[in-house]
Amino acid sequence: MRCPYCRHPDSRVVDSREAEDGKIIRRRRVCQECEKRFTTVEESILAVVKRSGVTEPFSRSKVASGVLKACQGRPVDADDVALLAQAVEDEIRSRGAAEVPSNEVGLAILKPLRQLDEVAYLRFASVYQSFESLEDFEAAIGQLREEHAARNSA
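The structure corresponding to this sequence follows.
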């Protein structure tokens, strides 16, 4: 790491600390030449690969926006959507991959959205699971009914 004071190309790490659940690492460094100390911040960037092949940084706000569209007209709190978006980001980051296909982001949204609101889940699933017919909706609704029956009988 180049020293910001004397521009010497070599520095030594004195201390490292994680922030924001390990997404950011702050390193305290000392220059090998002038011995001045400085801090660097390293951030891991999660990239999303779209169907077209274009790569863009993961955006929690984009996840929240998509979920809010599915929840339109439903009794869903914006704070719950924000928590869902955070949970989706945490789940995707836990995979350890630097790049993730966009359809995996959509699929990662489905489980927590199902728990949040089943109608919004069906709306969202119809896009990300590529529902093509009425039978696809019926199958998804049938699966939800089976889960309700299993929960109620337990």
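The two ends are 59 Å apart (CA to CA).
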